[in-house]
Automatic annotation (TrEMBL):
Domain (Gfo/Idh/MocA-like oxidoreductase N-terminal): residue spans on this chain: 49-130
TM stretches of this protein: none
Gene source species: Agreia bicolorata
One Pfam family from the record: GFO_IDH_MocA
Protein name: Dehydrogenase
Domain GFO/IDH/MocA-like oxidoreductase residue range list: 138-264
PANTHER family: BILIVERDIN REDUCTASE A
Key words of the record: NAD
Keyword NAD belongs to the record: yes
Claim: Coiled coil is one of the keywords in the record: no
C-alpha cells in the first residue's frame, strides 16, 4: 500500500452495514490514515449504532454528515443501507471525496446511473466493495483461465451462502435493502465472473422462496439464479441465506469453473482451523490466511493517492446490479429476463 505524503483523511458514512466494523478495524491501525465517522438518525434499540458504536470501537465520531463533510475528507466509505447509497454517494462526490461504496451499488438502475454521473461530474473515484476478487486463489484461477489451461469454459457453478444477517434488521426490509438473499449475495459471484471472463450477461432466469427464516424475514431467503453470457457460458448461483444460526462460521463463497480441458473448484473462505468448544461441545471454526478486505482497502487507498480509477469501479457495480434486477423480475414473473445494457 502506498504511503501518502500527509495523513489521508477517510470518513465512514453510516454503521448500517455489518462490514463497516471490519473496515474501521483495519483503517484505525493504519498510521497514515486519519479516520472520522458518522451514523446519524434513529436506530433500532437492539442494535449498537451511532456514537455508542464509535465509542465501543474507540474511533472519532461526529453527529451529522454535514459535520463529516465539513472535515473535508480525501475519501469516503459508504456503508449505509442499500437504498441510501445514492444520496450518500452524491453527497460525498459533491464534497470532492473519492468513494468506496458497499455492495450492491444501489437498489435501482436509475440510482446506479445517477451515482456514476455524480462521481464523473465531480472527477472523483467510485469503487465498489467486492473484496473476494482480491483473493490470491482468484488470481490463480484468472491466470489459468487467461492462459487457456481450462480450454473453452462452458459453465460456472457458484455459491454465496450465509446466515440470515440478523445483526441489522434492515437487511430483510426490502424498502431499505432492495430485496433479500438475491440482493445480498448474487453480486459477489457476478463480480467474480466479470473479472474472470470480461463477458457481458445476456439473460437471467431465477427462482426464489421464503421457506428459510419465514417468520423473521420480509424478503426472499433462498434463490437460484442462472445467467447466460455472450461468450456462451452459463452460470448458476445459489445465493441462499441457508447457514443455520448455530453454524460455526457465517458462510462462504465458492465457484466451480468447467472447461473442455479441465475443471477448477475454489472455496475462497475454505482455509479454517476447526475444533470443538470445550465449554459447549459445539463446533468452532477460525479462518486464517489473507484478509480480502485489507487488500480491497489497500487498493482503494493507493487509488486515492494516485488519482487513478481502480477496479471494480461503479460501472462494474451497475452491471452486477442489473443482473440482480433481472433476477428479481424473473423470480416475480416466472420468465427469463434480458439484462439491461446500459
Amino acid at each position: 500500500m502506498r504511503t501518502p505524503d500527509r495523513p489521508l483523511k477517510i470518513a465512514v458514512m453510516s454503521f448500517a452495514h455489518t462490514h463497516a466494523r471490519g473496515y474501521i478495524e483495519l483503517l484505525k491501525n493504519i498510521p497514515s490514515v486519519s479516520l472520522l465517522t458518522s451514523d446519524p438518525g434513529e436506530h433500532p434499540a437492539a442494535e449498537l449504532r451511532g456514537r455508542a458504536f464509535a465509542e465501543h470501537l474507540g474511533i472519532d465520531y461526529v453527529d451529522s454528515y454535514d459535520e463529516l463533510m465539513a472535515w473535508q475528507p480525501d475519501a469516503v466509505i459508504v456503508t449505509s443501507e442499500n437504498a441510501r447509497h445514492r444520496a450518500d454517494v452524491e453527497r460525498a462526490a459533491k464534497a470532492g471525496a473519492h468513494i468506496l461504496c458497499e455492495k450492491p451499488l444501489a437498489t435501482s438502475h436509475d440510482d446506479g446511473v445517477a451515482m456514476l454521473e455524480a462521481a464523473d461530474a465531480a472527477g472523483v473515484i467510485l469503487m465498489v466493495a467486492f473484496p473476494v476478487r482480491f483473493a490470491s486463489t482468484f488470481a490463480r484461477l484468472k491466470a489459468e483461465y487467461d492462459s487457456g489451461q481450462l480450454g473453452q469454459v462452458f459453465s460456472v457453478r457458484g455459491s454465496n451462502n450465509g446466515r440470515l444477517p440478523s445483526e441489522r434488521a434492515w437487511f430483510t426490509d426490502p424498502a431499505l435493502s432492495g430485496g433479500g438473499a438475491l440482493v445480498d449475495h448474487v453480486v459477489h459471484i457476478a463480480d467474480l465472473l466479470e473479472a474472470l471472463m470480461g463477458a457481458a450477461p445476456v439473460s437471467v432466469t431465477a427462482v426464489t422462496n421464503q421457506k428459510l427464516h419465514a417468520e423473521r424475514a420480509r424478503a426472499e431467503t433462498a434463490g437460484l439464479v442462472t445467467i447466460s453470457y455472450d461468450n456462451g457460458v452459463i452460470a448458476a448461483i445459489d445465493c441462499s441465506w441457508s447457514q443455520p444460526d448455530t453454524a460455526p462460521t457465517w458462510g462462504g463463497v465458492s465457484v466451480t469453473v468447467a472447461g473442455t480441458a479441465g475443471t477448477v473448484a475454489v472455496d475462497f473462505f475454505g482455509p479454517r482451523a476447526r475444533g470443538l468448544d470445550t465449554a459447549t461441545g459445539l463446533p468452532i471454526e477460525e479462518p486464517y490466511g489473507p484478509n480480502f478486505d485489507e487488500a480491497l482497502l489497500s487498493t482503494f487507498i493507493d487509488a486515492v493517492c494516485s488519482g487513478k480509477q481502480p477496479q471494480p469501479d461503479g460501472r462494474v457495480g451497475l452491471r452486477t446490479l442489473d443482473i440482480v434486477l433481472a433476477a428479481q423480475e424473473s423470480a416475480r414473473t416466472g420468465r427469463t429476463v434480458a439484462v439491461s445494457k446500459g
